[in-house]
Structure formats: structure tokens, C-alpha cells
Amino acid sequence: MASTNRGVTQADIDYFTSAGISVVHSNEQLGGTYNTDYFDKYHGASQTIVFPKSTSQVSTILSHCNNSHISVVTQGGNSGTAGGAMAQQHELLLSLRDMDRIRDLDIVSGVVVAEAGCILETLDEHVRKFEYIVPVDLGAKKRCMIGGNVSTNAGGLRYLRYGSLHGNVLGLEVVLPDGQVLDSLFTLKKDASGYDVKQLFIGAEGTLGVVTAVSLALAPKPQSEQLVVLGMDAFVTIQRTFVLARQLLGEIVSAFEFWERRCNELVVQYEGYSSPLSATHEFHVLIETRGSLARHDWEKMDLFLARLRAEQLVGESRVVRDPAEMEQVWLFRSQMANAHMKSGCMHVYDFSLASKHQHELLRAVKAHLHRHKLYGCEQAAVRDVTFFGHVGDDNIHLQVIADEFGGAVEEAMEPWVYQWVGAHKGSVAAEHGLGAHKGQFLKYSKSPALVDTMKALKRLLDPNDIMNPGKHVARA
Amino acid sequence: MASTNRGVTQADIDYFTSAGISVVHSNEQLGGTYNTDYFDKYHGASQTIVFPKSTSQVSTILSHCNNSHISVVTQGGNSGTAGGAMAQQHELLLSLRDMDRIRDLDIVSGVVVAEAGCILETLDEHVRKFEYIVPVDLGAKKRCMIGGNVSTNAGGLRYLRYGSLHGNVLGLEVVLPDGQVLDSLFTLKKDASGYDVKQLFIGAEGTLGVVTAVSLALAPKPQSEQLVVLGMDAFVTIQRTFVLARQLLGEIVSAFEFWERRCNELVVQYEGYSSPLSATHEFHVLIETRGSLARHDWEKMDLFLARLRAEQLVGESRVVRDPAEMEQVWLFRSQMANAHMKSGCMHVYDFSLASKHQHELLRAVKAHLHRHKLYGCEQAAVRDVTFFGHVGDDNIHLQVIADEFGGAVEEAMEPWVYQWVGAHKGSVAAEHGLGAHKGQFLKYSKSPALVDTMKALKRLLDPNDIMNPGKHVARA
């Protein structure tokens, strides 16, 4: 997969510097900040990073790299978990950190135009002052940037309510590999004039160009929020509860998460948080509602909980009314990946899979690893196999915690688990993206004609293959 | 703009027939059914139409046409208003009428897989039996087909609530010009694996391939519906009312429409309906809410109406509680285009435009036509200039009713009105598409780099230019 493009030379650095572009170069490698990804699984080898301050500087950089055949890896908050923002060899890193202006906020229509380097939480805090929220929210919000959210087609915690970035992004400003600026920063909600070109860059993981700014339809800030945590002992109960939530909580449901017992234990053990429930349960379920009239919203929640009790679906239940306590519960939930990471080397999988197959997958993985003498036996290399997920989005995160990365565990898991998911009509990447590694498994969930079309699009838009080469569909 | 592709011969017809494909051919022209578009403005010249019954038959047709350089115009319900489904010369018409199976409906996840020829209303009625609705709804629902809705990126009446097809379409089955089937009929909600290729076909108006099936995320069927019609006398009042609706009706608002006095008069005059309000008002506003608990939903509506009265925003208001009456009001609204059509030759424009510029546009058009002695003077060619629209989507429909199509009126209006809209950062086509005519105005709202990229995508996916040639971006 090695690119034939050349490395960055002192002459390139001088060129960028003379154009007023901030460059950091090291004769060894740049530090871990830019060469280590979020889960400490992927490591980059870049020696040079540029920090453009404007779209025009991004254009200057790409134009030069395209003419000189220098590969470019774009980096936002570097909170990706699939290695997509790591330089594999001598690529130039392009950080959008310094492009963090909010260019425009229309408080009547609720549309924001923000530069790619805006940190998600900062952007959300800003628009909240004007009674809006950003319609995407995820655990890494303090670090991830809106350009990275768009480039990875981030899903997150409230996808169930606010939907896909393919629906919420109204326009993008993208610099193409040859330096041309593709300005589609449209700020109105409906548009049916020509091909919706911007959609190609949503989830392209920096392989087609650099997203420099985003026009986003905001959601109204909720006037009231409700939160409950439920203890359940069977997976099927979660599904019944979801059906009831859709029926009785209707349009106010904003999040519906579950995690299994072991996930809960790991957060308690490695992050030092108290469990949201006092007793032990096979599954924890978190349901959040957001509405416009607290009295109505709480009444719906009460009716819903009464129904759960009447159907004897729930063991312990905790209704959280205090906003600070709500934040604590969300903090607990958001520490799940970190806690796993601290407990060992985390092989993380991010699948879309019909809910009826989700528990089956967990059991299949455990049985498979057991057959390979890697789990549930003496001196097993795998410590834990866990899953948690976003109910209603059909998105689960599966963790295999081992003593090391790669090795026998990875060999046993891959491509086996991707084949399993493909055979059950799931997606091999639901919201984390393909990154450095998963492109090779794309064939298990996408047809050859579709993969070929993706590759043709890549050749069309990046003929010199300078944008994040060797990753994403390049590996398919 | 004439295509260099050849016409259909008897040998082609024999080939299709021998492959079991239903063909209708006339030595003159096919009747008005297939050669006349919805508003009777565009007329086709096709002599041959095929009615494939399967994806495989569509593949056979396209493969033959691609090899033989025969141009193909795809037709669904033929309810388009921009001439996109009209054959301009000797193209083969490909009707999806006979591909109308519902292939799958998952009643747990609420995802339907339907063939392109499913009539929107029929599909909606089917999924309603399982407590779901199709998240797109428009005036032509008795006639339009889901494949056409996708291919034109239809918006419609409840876009405000359910959002864009770019968010709601989970997957497509598309036959490419060379006959390859691009199967991305994914049925799960989240996917971040590779470029989202299907997005290119949403709104492509049959220029890149034939959409044969659609996987669609459904919305839950509302448990209660509320409807009010309000009489208002200033456009600015509508905007204040919308802000209050978003605040007080919050998550239950499902439609927010307005039409001006003259639109109301035309429906009464030409369709014979009674006005929804008894007195005369400059503007009629229709607000619909849909929720999961009638008692809460009506209480919110009452609070909202009380606030409108307290702020003295509304003249007459009519609260509609009876479902049959609600249907009558919607029927009135849906006759708006037809009534205009009956009153004269309708030059129809479909713009996205920030609400603050909408009334300004109407005034500018009237003044412009007056300056050209076409409106508001003796023997004026223009009888009426009207507008109505979907508030919150920033989408207005502007009608110029004249004695004839084309001529001095069209010359005065075009490209002037598209320039005006482009200069005010609107879109030249919000939900009707570019069709046969509007591609040439795309440059007023899209940059050259964007238009060039669109053209490059067309060349990549349809190198022989057989799919709906001479329309859409081909005219840009």
C-alpha cells in the first residue's frame, strides 16, 4: 500500500514558510500528539505538520503537494479510532486546528457556518447561547472538530433524534487536491439543483480533499430534559423497551443507549465512577428525552415507566431529575471506551447490525475465540469481550480486550468477524470509519460494483493520489 | 443541446420484445400520457416506451442502449414540473410503472424496501397499517412514484419535520448506464464505510442511471394531529409566528405553509373549493402538528394560539379538529398549482430563498414586469404574479400567469429572476429539480468549480451520455 509520492523536503518547508504558513518539522518524528491516535493503537510516522490559518493557505499547500506529488494526511482533533488521521510514512500532516472561526450564525433560520477546526463542544456551547444545539454529539466532543465529524460521518449519541450528517450538513467548503476551492457553503434547507457533490466528502476521511468549513442546520435547544437509567437482565427486554419508548415517548426520545454488566464494571474499576444503579444487572439502559414543555415531557416519562413496571420489564430504575446528576450519568457513559482501553489492549469494532443479531454476535465472538483457545480457558490472551451500543441506530461497539494488539487475537478475529457481520447484512463500519485498516473488509458489506465506483470517484477527484493514500477504499 | 445518439429502430424493439420486455411503439408519437408533463408546459417527442418488470430487464435495456448509443429518458409518475421526464427528440422512454413491488418492510426497525414504481400514496397507505408513515409527502402523491421522488430529491409538505431524502434514504438499487447493477440497498441507519455513492443519484433526475429500488427509513405514524388555519395581513407576521411555533409547539410542528390572497382566490375560482377562512386576508397560514399524545398536543396548540392572540398577530383563526375537515383543508392547499394552471399559462419558479428576501422577490418581480409593460398596465400579458411556500424550509413557489408560454414574459423573467435569486444566495431549484430548462441557470447559485465537478461526475458515470441527455447539468 506504500504510496509512490515523495517525502517532504527542506525546500517544501521553505516554500510553506515563505507563504506565511505555520510549519513544525522534526528531523526525528513529531511527538505523540500528532502521531498517536485516540485509542493508542495506530501510530504515525510524520515529521512535518502544517497549520494553515485560512482556506487560501490550505489551497496553497494542496496545490504545491499535488504538483510535487507529496501525500497529505488531514488531521482535526485527532480523536479518530480507526487510524484515518495517522501518517503511515512520510506524508505531510495538515492540521485544521488554527481554522476555528465561526463565520456566520443565522439565529432566525438556525444555520451555522463554522470552520473545520471548531471543536464540537465549543461550537455547541456557542450556538446554545442562541437557543440552538449542534445536531451531533459524541464522547470525544471536547476534542473532536466539526470538520472531522463531517469527514468521518460521525453518528454519536443522539443520531436517533437528529439523524445523519448527510441530512444536517447544508453545505461544505472543500479544497480539492489541485488547490481548487469547491464552495458549496449553501445555508438554506432545500436544494435540488444538480448533483449533491458535497455528500461525497461526508465520510470520505480526507481522501478526496480537505473540508475547510461546514454549513450546518442546527436543532432547537430543548426546553426540558429527562433521564432514566434502567437495570435489565435480558437483551430482548431492551428491544421491547425500545418499542414502548417509541410508542409512549414518541417524538421526545433523544437517546437510547445500552451497555452490558462488564462495561459497567470496567468504568467503575478503571475510571473510579460510581455505578448509576446500586444493584448488579446484565444490562444498563439509558433513556433520555428532550422536549419543549417539561410538564408534558415528565408526564410522558412517568407513563412510560409505569408501563415498563406493569409489563415487569425493568428491575431497578433510576429517574434522574437534577441536571448535574444527568451530567454525571452521561460522563459515566462517555468513559466506556477509555475504561476498556485502560484495562488492556482494545481491539475495537464498530458495526451496524440488526438488533436481532446483536447479542448473537457477542455469543458467536466468545465461542469463536474459545475455539481458538483465546478466551474462557487457562492462559487465554483475551481478558474480556464486551459490547455496548446505540439502540434504534442498530449500532454496536464490540470490544475484545487482549494482552497485546495484533497477534493471534487479531488473526482469529479478522476477517472472520467482518465476514460474520457482512453475512448478517451489517456494515463493517457504522460511525468510526474505515481508516487505515478496515478498507480491506469493505467487500464483506459492499458489492464489487459499489467498491469499483468508489475507487473510480477517488481517481476522478484525486488523480495523483495525494490525499490520505493507502487508507479507506484504497485498501478495498 | 441535441444528442448525437441514434433513435430507436425496429431492430431495437424486436430485441427488447425477444427479451420479454413490454414495449409500446407508435409510428407517430406516443400519446399525451407520456409526452406531456404535469403542468402542460413541456412536451415530449418519444415514439417508443419500455415497461420493464424487473431490475434485470432494466439492466438489459440500458446495456443495449449503451452499446447502441440510444438515449434513455426514465419516467416514473410523470408528475414532474421541470420537463425532466420528457423525451426531447428520439429518446427511448423507460417507465418504472410495472416495478411496483414492496420488497421488504421491517416492522421493528421501520425500514421499507420498495421498487421505484411504487406510487407514493400507495406506499404510505401500506406502511400506515404497521404504524409508520413515509417521511416525504407532496401534492402529487396519488401519481408520483418513490423512484421519481428520490431522483428529483423531492421536498414537499413535511420536510420541516422529517427532513431531507439525503438523510432518510438508507440505500438504493441503481442500474448504471452500462447495465451494471449498483446495489446499495442497505437497511440499517448508520453507515460510515466508504463514499456514500447513493447520494449522487438523489436528485440526479435520471442522468446517471435508473433508480430501481429504494430503502427508506420510515417515521412513526403520529398518534394525534392538529391543524389550524390563520389569517394574517403582513408577511413579517408569518415569520414571527414561525418563531413562536418553534418555541411553543417545538418538536410536534409538522407543517407550516403560507399562501397569499390571490392564491386563495384562484383555488376558490378554478377548483370550486370554499375558502378555509371566511374573511379576506393578505396571507393564509396553515400549521399542522403531529404528536404522540393528543391531550398534550392540543394543549400546546392552545397555548400557542393564546400567545398569537396576546401578541395580536392573527386576524381570523380556524382550529380544525375533525379529520375529514383536515383533509379538506389539505386538499385546498394541494390544488394551488392546479388552480394557477387553469387560470392561464403558468411560468412556475421554485426557489430556496432566505425568508427575509421572499416578499422582496415578489415585489421585485412585479416591478420588473411592470417596467417591461407586462404587468399592472393596459393589455398586460401577465395576469397574476403570486407566491406560496413552505415556511421554515425557505422554499417558495412563484407563479407568473400569462397568456402564453415563452415569449416576452419568459424573456423578461429569465435569466433575470435567477440572477436575482442567486445574488440573494438562494437556489434556482429548491425541490422541482433542473429538468429540461433550468440547468442553464445553475451558474447563478453554484460556483464554476462545483458545476465542473458535476459535469465530471456525469462523464465518469455515463461516458456515452445516454441518460437523459441535454438536460440537468448538461445545460449548465
Describe this structure in words.
2 copies of one chain form a homodimer. Chain A is of the alpha+beta class and 476 residues long. The first copy, chain A, folds into 4 domains: 10-98, Uridine Diphospho-n-acetylenolpyruvylglucosamine Reductase, domain 2 (2-Layer Sandwich); 102-220, Uridine Diphospho-n-acetylenolpyruvylglucosamine Reductase, domain 3, CATH 3.30.465.10; 224-336, Alpha-Beta Plaits (2-Layer Sandwich), CATH 3.30.70.2190; 344-445, Alpha-Beta Plaits. Chain A has helices spanning 10-18, 32-35, 55-68, 120-128, 146-151, 159-162, 165-168, 235-248, 261-271, 294-310, 323-334, 336-343, 355-371, 407-413, 416-423, 448-461, and strands at residues 22-25, 48-51, 72-75, 92-95, 102-106, 111-115, 132-133, 169-175, 181-183, 210-217, 219-220, 224-232, 253-260, 283-291, 317-320, 345-352, 382-390, 395-402. In chain A, the strands form 4 sheets. A 7-stranded antiparallel beta sheet of chain A has the order 15-12-14-13-17-18-16. In chain A, a hairpin with a 4-residue loop joins strand 17 and strand 18. In chain A, helix 8 (235-248) runs antiparallel to helix 10 and helix 9 (261-271) packs across helix 12. The mean pLDDT of chain A is 95. At the A-B interface, helix 7, strand 9, helix 8, helix 10 and helix 16 of A face helix 7, strand 9, helix 8, helix 10 and helix 16 of B.
